[in-house]
Amino acid sequence: MKFYLSIFILLILILSVFVLNLQIGAASISIFEMGENEVAKNLILNYRLPKTIAALLAGIALPISGLLLQELFRNPLADPSVLGITSASGLGVAMVIFLSSLLGFGSWLNNSWLICLASFCGAMFALITIVFFSSRLNSTTSLIIIGMMLAGFSAALIGIMQFFAPSEKIKSYIMWTFGSMSGLSWSQMFVFGLSVLMGIIISIFTLKGISGMRLGENYAQTMGINIKKTRWLILISSAILTASATAFVGPVAFIGLAVPHICRMVFKKTQIVGLYILVVLLGIFLMLLFSWIAQLFPSGSLPINIITSLIGAPIVMSIVLNQKRFIND
């Protein structure tokens, strides 16, 4: 009963903050003016609505990716940003932004599919690297260090490209790293939404395998679960979800790590299907809330990465200090 009540409350909160995002902006225009004001209709449908949906999609993609990685590695600190996956995914986007200019293919920058593919390749490279080392290292600390090295390696390659890139491309990339939900066209939203949907569908097929793996790999195999297939599905799903969010809204930190832990602490839910649903709903609510908060500042919209880092960093510290409390059963 508490589970369904939690879902109902989250749905009400999501609807409320969704409407708030459509109401707020630089112009004092309300959604109730759409019927009689063409300017209001155009502003809301072509600017505020895509921005709100982008926050919603990022709120789905990053927390699911974080949950899957935590289950796969049995590590409470596993997360796209902590493990260096977001940085590697950003490297793919940086290559599109910088190399397309250096090689004279500036039109590539407007190709939504190319941006998403480059981001996916970077994320997949990081995940395969982490899997390779995690099979040889049993230490949580070592795995985090590998993630830091991946992030440093990605930053070094990005630095080399920045050194030779024109100033306008450098500015464009720096603005992208702050994270932003705005400026997306409906064609980009289509690619974003399709990529997230693909990642969700793949992730759903991993839930039965995760339930079995929680009880031990030997027991999972007796249930007919293909461990190797489940792992690869988790990796592919996490890569798609992380890549799509990173490509279109920037390298948003901490959401993938914090949301699954908040769900475990607040809702006391450990069964994977219920936890999955709560992670999706809470992720949507928090990203919509952060997107709304970012627009409250009088000097302009604050980058979303600043908001998520301010709130996510204390949660990460609490996880590190109380690590045993947050490890899955």
UniProtKB/TrEMBL annotation:
GO terms for molecular function: transmembrane transporter activity. The chain crosses the membrane at residues 7-32, 52-69, 81-106, 112-133, 145-165, 185-211, 232-259, 271-290, 302-321. The keyword Membrane applies. Gene3D superfamilies: ABC transporter involved in vitamin B12 uptake, BtuC. Its main location: membrane. The keyword Transmembrane helix applies. It is a multi-pass membrane protein. Keywords: Cell membrane, Membrane, Transmembrane, Transmembrane helix, Transport. Belongs to the binding-protein-dependent transport system permease family. FecCD subfamily. This is Iron complex transport system permease protein.
